[in-house]
Amino acid sequence: xxxxxxxxxxxxxxxxxxxxxxxxxxxxxxxxxxxxxxxxxxxxxxxxxxxxxxxxxxxxxxxxxxxxxxxxxxxxxxxxxxxxxxxxxxxxxxxxxxxxxxxxxxxxxxxxxxxxxxxxxxxxxxxxxxxxxxxxxxxxxxxxxxxxxxxxxxxxxxxxxxxxxxxxxxxxxxxxxxxxxxxxxxxxxxxxxxxxxxxxxxxxxxxxxxxxxxxxxxxxxxxxxxxxxxxxxxxxxxxxxxxxxxxxx
Length: 249
Hints:
2 domains; 5-stranded antiparallel beta sheet; alpha+beta; de novo design (two linked rop proteins); 9 strands; 26% strand; 4-stranded mixed beta sheet; CATH 2.40.50.140
């Protein structure tokens, strides 16, 4: 007999199955990332039609079977329609969902990841915060949650905490002005860039999107995060390809 559970989470992906069903991937705080079938969700009169789309956040009543799960009902707290109806931000949103899908797994505590997604989607609608800054915050904080973030607080060569002016992606460390000169892949960075990276690493989610940066710092963050992503993510993310294409256009 199937067991019924109620989980709080967000839909990361929803794909059509058969004539009328959907296979839904949900990130939940209680069970981590789970998959479930939404039977008949593509029928026009189905109560599951509008509540099993990506970005939907709420409580999902699910029957756990031996081989698959089925969604019985959903109570939505937030649809994030302001994201899905805005072409300037929707590509960022889908990238964040796929990034969460990449880093999460079944039976983990996903409260941090859920909080980050929720806060990031709210931040995308704040005109004072550049969309790319929201992106770099999400990317780095996801790395922090999963232990793959760079060492940003002392020199990887001599150990000093002073004059940290270079970042070496291959070693995932910062270097002082003297040691950095001997690191082949090191890129220079402003103190403001270092402070931004240190803040993202240490701040709780509630404070992450409380600052902005200059265009020069934003560009340095772009260079650093692009290098880190190449080392930390071992497969291509389709949503990132689309995001990069749209930002270039």
